[in-house]
Structures are given as C-alpha cells and as structure tokens.
C-alpha cells in the first residue's frame, strides 16, 4: 500500500483566454485528458477573453508519476465551441502539456496558443498552469472527488480525478475503473463532453 505522503495531485489550472472571436450564441469548454481519464471545465461565454477559472486535478502516487514522466505521457487539452440550443459541438483547437514541467513549487501560469486553431484569423491563447500538490486530505483508496484548496484572487472551481495504483484497484474490484467526477450544470447534462476517440 502506498503511504499517504506519497499521494500527489496533478493540478491543471485553466484560467482565461484571449484573442478569441465573439460568438454570443455559443459557449466555450475545455476538456483535459490524462492517462485515459477525462475532465472538463464548465461552459463559459464565448467572448474575446473567456474566463474559465477552473482547476482540473488527478490523484496519482509518486511511483506512477515517475513512470508517466519516463513514458512522456502528455496531458491533452481540447477547446470546443458549444451551441446550447442544438447541443452541437465544434472543435476549435488543442494544447498539449508536458507532465515533466509540473513541479511541487508554485510557478506562474503561461499562455499557450491553440494548435490547429479553427479561427485562422485569430491567435487564440489560453492561460494555464500545471503543478504538483501533496495530497494530505484524502485516504489513498478514496474514489470520492474533493474540492481544491483555497486560492488567492479569483474564485476557481475544481474537478478532481483519482488514478490509483494497480494494487489499490485490485483491492476494490467492485469500484468502476473510471473515477472522474464532474460538477454538473444544466448545460452539462444536455451536452456530451466525451472527446471522440479518433482525436487522441
């Protein structure tokens, strides 16, 4: 069993965007996928400077983190435009984060330009930070999502996904293998946020 002190959180903070076109009849959402587990922001207004203010986080132990770094497992973010009336979802672009850049010391967020941007006349960017935090609140075998610790400045919503070592999973075979937790809004329930398998 992995000791409690070895439990970490991979925290991706999706803060805001810039250089987006204004589309009053649409909303924006960002989905993040790591090691087969997916989380997503809540939909926000499709303005030229969208405010996501969301943390997406996965639980992992140090041994698994080391293996993912050796394998260069990426964290892939994809941005979509949503039509709340028809539930249609358009792919806008994507960003790939290098897990090896995540550190346990606090780092300033960076601007990442969307790749394969549908808005060819705009250089759309999203401000993101990636960090490692020591998970001192949840037991190792907990599958229950929890809120992020308080942050200075703007209020940030959070979604946490648990990735357990194989030994912990085998000890709980009655628990589903996918343990992501989402905060559900009315729009979330009307729109499927699962990224097509062909993209990844």
Give the structure's gist in a few sentences.
By secondary structure, this protein is mostly beta strands.
Give an overview of the whole structure.
By secondary structure, the protein is mainly β. The protein has one domain (4-190): C2 domain (Immunoglobulin-like), CATH 2.60.40.150. It is built from 3 helices and 10 strands; from the N terminus they run E-E-E-E-E-H-E-E-E-E-E-H-H. The protein is elongated. The protein starts with 6 loop residues before the first strand and ends in a 10-residue tail after the last helix. The model is unreliable at 139-154 and 162-200 (pLDDT under 50).
List the main descriptive attributes of the protein structure presented here:
5-stranded antiparallel sheet; Immunoglobulin-like; coiled coil; 10% helix; 3 helices; 10 strands; elongated; mainly beta; 200 residues
Tell me the domain tally.
1
Helix tally equals 3
Q: Determine the CATH topology.
A: Immunoglobulin-like
- Count of extended strands: 10
Strand content: 35-45%
Protein structure class: mainly beta
The protein's oligomeric status is single chain
Average pLDDT across residues?
Answer: 77
Distance between the termini: 32 Å
Q: Largest beta sheet, briefly?
A: 5 strands, mixed
CATH class division: Mainly Beta
CA-atom Rg in angstroms: 17 Å
Instruction: Please name the fourth-level CATH homologous superfamily.
Output: C2 domain
Order of helices and strands: EEEEEHEEEEEHH
Organism: Pongo abelii
Subunit structure: Interacts with TACC2, TACC3, CCDC52, TALPID3.
Keywords: Coiled coil, Cytoplasm, Cytoskeleton, Repeat
Pfam family, one: C2
């Amino acid at each position: 069993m992995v000791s409690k002190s070895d439990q970490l959180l991979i925290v991706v903070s999706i803060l805001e965007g810039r250089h987006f076109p204004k589309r009053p009849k649409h909303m924006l959402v960002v989905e993040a996928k790591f090691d087969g587990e997916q989380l997503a922001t809540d939909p926000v207004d499709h303005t030229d400077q969208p405010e996501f203010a969301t943390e997406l986080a996965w639980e992992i132990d140090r041994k698994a983190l080391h293996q993912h770094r050796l394998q260069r497992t990426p964290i892939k973010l994809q941005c979509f435009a949503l039509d709340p009336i028809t539930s249609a979802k358009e792919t806008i672009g994507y960003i790939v984060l290098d897990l090896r850049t995540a550190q346990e010391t606090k780092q300033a967020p960076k601007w990442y330009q969307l790749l394969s941007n549908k808005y060819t006349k705009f250089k759309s960017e999203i401000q993101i930070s990636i960090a490692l935090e020591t998970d001192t609140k949840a037991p190792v075998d907990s599958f229950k999502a929890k809120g992020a610790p308080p942050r200075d400045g703007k209020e940030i919503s959070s979604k946490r996904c648990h990735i357990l070592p194989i030994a912990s999973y085998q000890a709980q075979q009655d628990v589903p293998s996918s343990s992501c937790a989402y905060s559900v809004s009315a729009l979330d329930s009307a729109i499927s946020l699962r990224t097509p398998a062909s993209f990844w």
